[in-house]
Amino acid sequence: MTIESLALKCAMALVCVVVTCASLHAAAGAAPAKPARKIPVIYDSDIGDDIDDTWALGFLLKCPELDLKLVVGDQGKTSYRAKLFARFLAHAGRTDVAVGVGLNVGPKGGGPQSDWVKDYDLSGYKGTVHTDGVQAMIDLIMRSKTPITVIAVGPLPNVAEALKREPRIAARARFVGMHGSVRLGYGGRKNVSAEYNVRANARACRAVLSAAWDVTITPLDTCGLVHLRGRKYQTVRRSKDPVAAAIIENYRIWSKRKNVRYFETRSSTLFDTVAVYLAFRQDLCRMEDLPIRVDDKGYTRIDPKAKTLHVASAWKDMGAFEDLLVTRLTAPAK
């Protein structure tokens, strides 16, 4: 064998080694990335009053970034709210989610979605039902190895009581809420409003928003502008997905009880869905860190002396959020 032949063989062998290594590296790079850890969530809601809480629950269940662990009804009507939660979760095939009965503080009885649960027996729920929903919240937060996100979309007596019973939960959780009015009021009006979730129990809201945890809110400035109309609404309305269908069934019942005439053409204002979005993404909103104080009349005032909150103060692309909401609600379950 000549020196030239030997050199050529060595060169070819080296090329083979390089190609093999490159192929192995490419194969390793093509392997699926390890999925991001889901965010464990508690959903505290006055479901059954306005219909947007039901839309938000459906959205939450269809977001793969979020891992719903516990739902708790807030602001009275304890049996009614627990039944709505339980039947909706069972319909969605999510009886792994525990249902908590909230404090019996606030209004009693039923509401505009009562017909949907009039024959439902809460004892038949195949998941766990906690008769003390506040303690269930505390226990879940204190036991969790990762921080819990509390998504709250109603008045806040449950969350305030949880902080009172066990202040240490603030160091082990973060709060995302649908609360307040910073620069815009209801319907985008230029005058701020005493937003209902704050006004209904200003003392509880003040305690929660000023607690020693990370707080993000969507005030009326963003959440008060969201509706689904036209093709977007009809896509959800006509969907055969069990979650979307349950939302629309409840919306139909709610609309009849509330004498709402636009059921055929659009949604009501979907305030609470924005809080769910902020639990895992914020890029479609303009976020500001603002010092917010809750006054006794239920207004959320910018006050330099108050605690700084993360505030979704305006939309960058509300249309893209609506598209995301529709896509998630109508996507086939995985």
The coarse silhouette is: globular
CATH level-1 class = Alpha Beta
Number of helices: 12
User: What number of domains?
Assistant: 1
Query: According to CATH, what is the topology?
Result: Inosine-uridine Nucleoside N-ribohydrolase, Chain A
**What structural category do the secondary elements indicate?**
alpha/beta
Largest sheet: 10 strands, mixed
CATH superfamily: Ribonucleoside hydrolase-like
Unreliable spans are 1-32
- Residue fraction in strands: 15-25%
Q: Would you tell me the overall average pLDDT?
A: 91
Strand order of the largest sheet: 4-3-2-1-5-6-7-10-8-9
**DSSP summary, beta strand count:** 10
**N- to C-terminal separation?**
63 Å
Q: In which range does the helix fraction lie?
A: 25-40%
Order of helices and strands: HEHEHEEHEHEHHEHHHHEEEH
Q: What assembly state would you assign to the polypeptide chains in this entry?
A: single chain
Q: Radius of gyration, Cα only, in angstroms?
A: 24 Å
